[in-house]
Amino acid sequence: MKAGTLYLVGTPIGNLEDITLRAIRILAEVDVIASEDTRRTAQLLNHLEIKKPLISYYEQNKDSRTPELLARMSAGESVALVSDAGLPGIADPGMELVAACHASGITVSPVPGANAALSALICSGMDTRRFTFLGFLPRTDKKRRELLESFVEREETLIVYEAPHRVLEVLGAFSKSLGNRQVVIGRELTKKFEEFRAGTVDEHIDYFNGIEPRGEFVLVVAGANGETVAMSAETINNMPLLDILNELLVNGVSRNEALRTMTQKLGISKRELYKKIEQLKAEEPI
Prior knowledge:
By secondary structure, the protein is α/β, with parallel strands linked by helices. The protein has three domains: 5-114, Cobalt-precorrin-4 Transmethylase, domain 1; 117-221, 2-Layer Sandwich (Methyltransferase, Cobalt-precorrin-4 Transmethylase, Domain 2), CATH 3.30.950.10; 233-283. The protein contains twelve helices and ten strands. The chain has helices at 21-29, 38-48, 62-74, 95-104, 116-122, 141-149, 167-178, 201-210, 233-237, 241-250, 255-266, 270-283; strands at 5-9, 32-35, 54-56, 79-82, 107-111, 131-136, 157-162, 182-187, 195-200, 217-221. A five-stranded parallel β-sheet has the order 3-2-4-1-5, sandwiched between helices. Strands 6-7-10-8-9 form a five-stranded mixed β-sheet. α3 (62-74) packs parallel to α4. It is elongated, with a radius of gyration of 24 Å.
């Protein structure tokens, strides 16, 4: 072990057996453990029969704790940073401390472990070659819509974390901004009631309207690759797209808003919809 080093230690996301031998050794050897939730970390350390000083490090106190931890490492102490579960810094505090360590010339070392986002992704059956982790989406409708709409035409898989009481709200946001895409929902990963559900956005909304969502959720959303839309291309081609667009325009809806509304209903990108509309215009009799 190197003196004056920050170790980023991955901890189990549910099943306590999902911790590496190296992680156990590092936790036992460091001078202090910085933890997002000291009570939860204490439970893990008790399970591992490790006794080490704990110091809290979370979103609300990171500004005051960061210089304190930097001072300790500069004096030669080794520090392990752990989050509630999984890898520190992934949808959890940590990146500011890491950046500060780099700026101060302090060594940072990863101790890999479990991660809910990647665990859900590999179990989703969706494209794992290109993906974007969005973490927890913004709480306000406006900011959430703006973020999701920036991915409407992008083809990579999306990964989202969400609490049970907001799952339906987020699924509704998917429906409005991304259309009726395929989504695989992972719940309570590695725990006793672990579950994966595959279906369209609308199917998940129907399901959770009939049963209360429980547990921690990871939602894996298909990208805009032309294979993830519930409505078939044949169905869309047979729809009176120009009539639908003109009706929206007559009712006072702006062109951009009308196109956005249609992409949401059809589950296709604006670029694809615009192309179809231009083709239909070209085919209209003079």
